Amino acid sequence: MDWWASIILGIVEGVTEFLPISSTGHLTVTEKLLGLPIDSPSVTAYTAIIQVGAMIASIVYFRSDILRIATAWLAGVRDAAKRSDPDYNLGWAVIGGFAVTAVIALALKDLVEGPFRNLWAIVASLLAWSVVMWAGDRFGKQNRGEHTITWKDGLILGAIQSISLVPGVSRSGATISGALLLGIDRVTATRMSFFLGIPTLVAAGGFQAVTQASDIAAPGGVGWGATLIGTVVSFFVAYASIAWLLKYVASNNFTLFIVYRILVALLIAALLWQGTITAV
What we know:
Blueprint: H1 3-16, H2 23-33, H3 41-49, H4 51-61, H5 63-78, H6 86-112, H7 119-139, H8 151-161, H9 171-181, H10 186-211, H11 213-217, H12 224-249, H13 255-274
Helix pairs in contact: 1-2, 1-12, 3-10, 4-10, 4-12, 5-6, 6-8, 6-10, 7-9, 7-13, 8-9, 9-10
Protein backbone atom coordinates (compact mmCIF):
# COMPACT_ATOMS: atom_id res chain seq x y z
CA MET A 1 0.00 0.00 0.00
CA ASP A 2 1.28 3.49 -0.87
CA TRP A 3 1.93 5.84 2.05
CA TRP A 4 -0.61 8.38 0.81
CA ALA A 5 -3.32 5.70 0.62
CA SER A 6 -2.55 4.71 4.20
CA ILE A 7 -2.89 8.35 5.30
CA ILE A 8 -6.29 8.59 3.60
CA LEU A 9 -7.48 5.40 5.30
CA GLY A 10 -6.09 6.59 8.65
CA ILE A 11 -8.09 9.79 8.32
CA VAL A 12 -11.25 7.88 7.39
CA GLU A 13 -10.78 5.57 10.37
CA GLY A 14 -10.11 8.42 12.78
CA VAL A 15 -13.12 10.44 11.66
CA THR A 16 -15.62 7.58 11.50
CA GLU A 17 -14.62 5.19 14.30
CA PHE A 18 -16.60 6.93 17.00
CA LEU A 19 -19.31 8.58 14.91
CA PRO A 20 -22.41 6.38 14.48
CA ILE A 21 -21.89 6.06 10.74
CA SER A 22 -19.85 2.82 10.44
CA SER A 23 -16.08 3.08 10.25
CA THR A 24 -15.81 -0.40 8.68
CA GLY A 25 -18.32 0.55 6.01
CA HIS A 26 -16.46 3.75 5.17
CA LEU A 27 -13.09 2.00 5.18
CA THR A 28 -14.41 -0.76 2.93
CA VAL A 29 -15.78 1.72 0.39
CA THR A 30 -12.60 3.81 0.52
CA GLU A 31 -10.43 0.72 0.07
CA LYS A 32 -12.55 -0.25 -2.90
CA LEU A 33 -12.19 3.21 -4.47
CA LEU A 34 -8.42 2.97 -3.94
CA GLY A 35 -8.40 -0.29 -5.86
CA LEU A 36 -7.62 -2.51 -2.88
CA PRO A 37 -9.07 -6.07 -2.67
CA ILE A 38 -11.48 -5.78 0.27
CA ASP A 39 -11.65 -9.56 0.74
CA SER A 40 -7.87 -9.87 1.06
CA PRO A 41 -6.70 -11.19 4.47
CA SER A 42 -4.01 -8.50 4.50
CA VAL A 43 -6.48 -5.67 3.91
CA THR A 44 -8.90 -7.14 6.48
CA ALA A 45 -6.09 -7.27 9.06
CA TYR A 46 -4.99 -3.72 8.20
CA THR A 47 -8.54 -2.43 8.69
CA ALA A 48 -8.69 -3.96 12.17
CA ILE A 49 -5.20 -2.96 13.28
CA ILE A 50 -5.41 0.76 12.46
CA GLN A 51 -8.44 0.89 14.76
CA VAL A 52 -5.95 0.53 17.62
CA GLY A 53 -4.75 4.07 16.91
CA ALA A 54 -8.28 5.38 17.41
CA MET A 55 -8.67 3.29 20.55
CA ILE A 56 -5.44 4.65 22.02
CA ALA A 57 -6.82 8.13 21.36
CA SER A 58 -9.94 7.23 23.33
CA ILE A 59 -7.83 5.84 26.18
CA VAL A 60 -5.85 9.08 26.35
CA TYR A 61 -9.01 11.19 26.16
CA PHE A 62 -10.87 9.21 28.84
CA ARG A 63 -7.84 8.38 30.99
CA SER A 64 -9.25 10.03 34.12
CA ASP A 65 -12.61 8.22 33.72
CA ILE A 66 -10.87 4.90 33.13
CA LEU A 67 -8.74 5.37 36.26
CA ARG A 68 -11.80 6.37 38.30
CA ILE A 69 -13.87 3.37 37.19
CA ALA A 70 -10.99 0.91 37.58
CA THR A 71 -10.21 2.22 41.07
CA ALA A 72 -13.84 1.93 42.17
CA TRP A 73 -14.16 -1.56 40.70
CA LEU A 74 -11.00 -2.83 42.42
CA ALA A 75 -12.11 -1.25 45.70
CA GLY A 76 -15.50 -2.97 45.42
CA VAL A 77 -13.92 -6.33 44.64
CA ARG A 78 -11.80 -6.06 47.79
CA ASP A 79 -14.39 -4.51 50.10
CA ALA A 80 -18.13 -5.30 49.93
CA ALA A 81 -18.91 -2.04 51.71
CA LYS A 82 -17.73 -0.10 48.67
CA ARG A 83 -19.93 -1.88 46.16
CA SER A 84 -22.61 0.77 46.33
CA ASP A 85 -20.38 3.09 44.31
CA PRO A 86 -21.99 3.56 40.84
CA ASP A 87 -18.53 3.32 39.26
CA TYR A 88 -18.17 -0.21 40.69
CA ASN A 89 -21.30 -1.25 38.80
CA LEU A 90 -20.11 0.60 35.72
CA GLY A 91 -16.88 -1.37 35.86
CA TRP A 92 -18.82 -4.65 35.84
CA ALA A 93 -20.99 -3.35 32.99
CA VAL A 94 -17.90 -2.72 30.85
CA ILE A 95 -16.34 -6.09 31.73
CA GLY A 96 -19.58 -7.97 31.06
CA GLY A 97 -20.28 -6.11 27.83
CA PHE A 98 -16.78 -6.77 26.52
CA ALA A 99 -17.03 -10.48 27.41
CA VAL A 100 -20.32 -10.90 25.53
CA THR A 101 -19.00 -9.09 22.46
CA ALA A 102 -15.76 -11.09 22.48
CA VAL A 103 -17.55 -14.45 22.62
CA ILE A 104 -19.91 -13.55 19.78
CA ALA A 105 -17.08 -12.05 17.70
CA LEU A 106 -14.95 -15.17 18.00
CA ALA A 107 -17.91 -17.39 17.14
CA LEU A 108 -18.82 -15.39 14.03
CA LYS A 109 -15.35 -14.30 12.92
CA ASP A 110 -15.21 -16.33 9.69
CA LEU A 111 -18.75 -15.38 8.69
CA VAL A 112 -18.21 -11.65 9.19
CA GLU A 113 -14.87 -11.58 7.39
CA GLY A 114 -16.36 -13.47 4.46
CA PRO A 115 -19.85 -12.88 3.02
CA PHE A 116 -20.43 -9.59 4.81
CA ARG A 117 -17.40 -7.96 3.20
CA ASN A 118 -19.72 -6.95 0.40
CA LEU A 119 -20.87 -3.45 -0.51
CA TRP A 120 -24.50 -4.50 -0.97
CA ALA A 121 -24.44 -5.84 2.59
CA ILE A 122 -23.06 -2.49 3.74
CA VAL A 123 -25.84 -0.61 1.92
CA ALA A 124 -28.47 -2.79 3.60
CA SER A 125 -26.85 -2.39 7.03
CA LEU A 126 -26.55 1.38 6.74
CA LEU A 127 -30.23 1.70 5.90
CA ALA A 128 -31.57 -0.89 8.33
CA TRP A 129 -29.68 0.40 11.36
CA SER A 130 -30.61 3.98 10.54
CA VAL A 131 -34.18 2.95 11.39
CA VAL A 132 -33.01 1.54 14.74
CA MET A 133 -31.06 4.73 15.48
CA TRP A 134 -34.10 6.84 14.67
CA ALA A 135 -36.28 4.72 16.97
CA GLY A 136 -33.80 5.01 19.83
CA ASP A 137 -33.41 8.75 19.37
CA ARG A 138 -37.17 9.30 18.99
CA PHE A 139 -38.65 6.96 21.58
CA GLY A 140 -35.86 6.51 24.15
CA LYS A 141 -36.94 8.06 27.48
CA GLN A 142 -33.39 9.33 28.20
CA ASN A 143 -34.10 9.56 31.92
CA ARG A 144 -31.10 7.53 33.06
CA GLY A 145 -27.61 8.87 33.74
CA GLU A 146 -24.24 7.17 34.13
CA HIS A 147 -24.87 6.42 37.82
CA THR A 148 -27.77 4.09 36.87
CA ILE A 149 -25.74 1.73 34.66
CA THR A 150 -25.73 -1.89 35.89
CA TRP A 151 -24.01 -5.10 34.87
CA LYS A 152 -27.26 -6.16 33.18
CA ASP A 153 -27.09 -3.06 30.97
CA GLY A 154 -23.53 -4.03 30.13
CA LEU A 155 -24.51 -7.52 28.99
CA ILE A 156 -27.34 -6.16 26.84
CA LEU A 157 -25.16 -3.48 25.27
CA GLY A 158 -22.37 -6.00 24.69
CA ALA A 159 -24.77 -8.19 22.74
CA ILE A 160 -26.04 -5.21 20.77
CA GLN A 161 -22.48 -4.03 20.12
CA SER A 162 -21.71 -7.41 18.53
CA ILE A 163 -24.25 -6.63 15.79
CA SER A 164 -21.71 -4.11 14.52
CA LEU A 165 -19.60 -7.05 13.37
CA VAL A 166 -21.71 -6.64 10.25
CA PRO A 167 -20.07 -3.81 8.25
CA GLY A 168 -22.37 -0.83 7.88
CA VAL A 169 -24.11 -1.12 11.25
CA SER A 170 -21.52 0.94 13.20
CA ARG A 171 -20.19 -0.16 16.57
CA SER A 172 -20.84 3.19 18.20
CA GLY A 173 -24.20 3.47 16.43
CA ALA A 174 -25.26 0.05 17.72
CA THR A 175 -24.19 0.77 21.31
CA ILE A 176 -25.67 4.27 21.38
CA SER A 177 -28.98 3.11 19.91
CA GLY A 178 -29.19 0.25 22.38
CA ALA A 179 -28.45 2.56 25.29
CA LEU A 180 -31.08 5.06 24.16
CA LEU A 181 -33.68 2.29 23.94
CA LEU A 182 -32.74 1.34 27.52
CA GLY A 183 -33.69 4.87 28.57
CA ILE A 184 -30.14 6.18 28.90
CA ASP A 185 -29.53 9.82 27.97
CA ARG A 186 -27.58 10.79 24.83
CA VAL A 187 -24.34 11.90 26.50
CA THR A 188 -24.18 8.82 28.73
CA ALA A 189 -25.07 6.56 25.79
CA THR A 190 -22.22 8.08 23.79
CA ARG A 191 -19.78 7.73 26.67
CA MET A 192 -20.81 4.08 27.09
CA SER A 193 -20.00 3.48 23.44
CA PHE A 194 -16.45 4.59 24.23
CA PHE A 195 -16.14 2.62 27.47
CA LEU A 196 -17.30 -0.59 25.77
CA GLY A 197 -15.38 0.13 22.58
CA ILE A 198 -11.97 0.61 24.18
CA PRO A 199 -11.40 -3.01 25.33
CA THR A 200 -13.33 -4.44 22.39
CA LEU A 201 -11.37 -2.80 19.58
CA VAL A 202 -7.98 -2.92 21.30
CA ALA A 203 -8.51 -6.67 21.73
CA ALA A 204 -9.67 -7.02 18.11
CA GLY A 205 -6.68 -5.11 16.78
CA GLY A 206 -4.26 -7.00 19.00
CA PHE A 207 -5.79 -10.32 17.97
CA GLN A 208 -5.46 -9.43 14.30
CA ALA A 209 -1.87 -8.26 14.80
CA VAL A 210 -0.91 -11.57 16.40
CA THR A 211 -2.87 -13.97 14.22
CA GLN A 212 -2.51 -12.21 10.87
CA ALA A 213 0.90 -10.59 11.12
CA SER A 214 2.11 -12.83 8.31
CA ASP A 215 -0.69 -11.53 6.05
CA ILE A 216 0.36 -7.92 6.66
CA ALA A 217 4.01 -8.62 5.89
CA ALA A 218 3.48 -11.16 3.10
CA PRO A 219 4.61 -10.32 -0.45
CA GLY A 220 1.87 -8.24 -2.00
CA GLY A 221 0.41 -7.51 1.42
CA VAL A 222 -0.25 -4.08 2.92
CA GLY A 223 3.06 -3.97 4.80
CA TRP A 224 3.83 -2.89 8.37
CA GLY A 225 5.09 0.53 7.27
CA ALA A 226 1.73 1.48 5.79
CA THR A 227 -0.08 -0.09 8.74
CA LEU A 228 1.96 2.01 11.21
CA ILE A 229 1.25 5.20 9.24
CA GLY A 230 -2.48 4.49 9.17
CA THR A 231 -2.51 3.75 12.91
CA VAL A 232 -0.67 6.97 13.85
CA VAL A 233 -2.88 9.12 11.62
CA SER A 234 -6.03 7.52 13.02
CA PHE A 235 -4.86 8.37 16.57
CA PHE A 236 -4.62 12.12 16.00
CA VAL A 237 -7.75 12.39 13.88
CA ALA A 238 -9.77 10.25 16.30
CA TYR A 239 -8.81 12.39 19.29
CA ALA A 240 -10.25 15.47 17.57
CA SER A 241 -13.33 13.47 16.52
CA ILE A 242 -14.03 12.37 20.10
CA ALA A 243 -13.90 15.93 21.42
CA TRP A 244 -16.27 17.13 18.70
CA LEU A 245 -18.78 14.29 19.13
CA LEU A 246 -19.17 14.71 22.89
CA LYS A 247 -19.69 18.44 22.48
CA TYR A 248 -22.21 17.86 19.69
CA VAL A 249 -24.41 15.30 21.46
CA ALA A 250 -24.63 17.49 24.56
CA SER A 251 -27.07 19.74 22.71
CA ASN A 252 -28.16 17.86 19.56
CA ASN A 253 -29.94 14.63 18.60
CA PHE A 254 -28.65 12.07 16.09
CA THR A 255 -30.70 13.20 13.07
CA LEU A 256 -27.59 14.48 11.28
CA PHE A 257 -25.95 11.06 11.42
CA ILE A 258 -29.12 9.21 10.41
CA VAL A 259 -29.58 11.39 7.32
CA TYR A 260 -25.89 11.03 6.48
CA ARG A 261 -26.06 7.23 6.71
CA ILE A 262 -29.03 7.12 4.36
CA LEU A 263 -27.35 9.42 1.82
CA VAL A 264 -24.14 7.35 1.90
CA ALA A 265 -26.12 4.14 1.42
CA LEU A 266 -27.93 5.61 -1.59
CA LEU A 267 -24.64 6.87 -3.06
CA ILE A 268 -22.99 3.46 -2.74
CA ALA A 269 -26.04 1.79 -4.27
CA ALA A 270 -25.95 4.22 -7.21
CA LEU A 271 -22.25 3.53 -7.81
CA LEU A 272 -22.91 -0.21 -7.72
CA TRP A 273 -25.86 0.03 -10.12
CA GLN A 274 -23.80 2.12 -12.55
CA GLY A 275 -20.91 -0.36 -12.38
CA THR A 276 -18.50 2.31 -11.13
CA ILE A 277 -17.53 -0.06 -8.33
CA THR A 278 -18.15 -3.75 -7.74
CA ALA A 279 -19.70 -5.31 -4.65
CA VAL A 280 -16.63 -7.39 -3.74
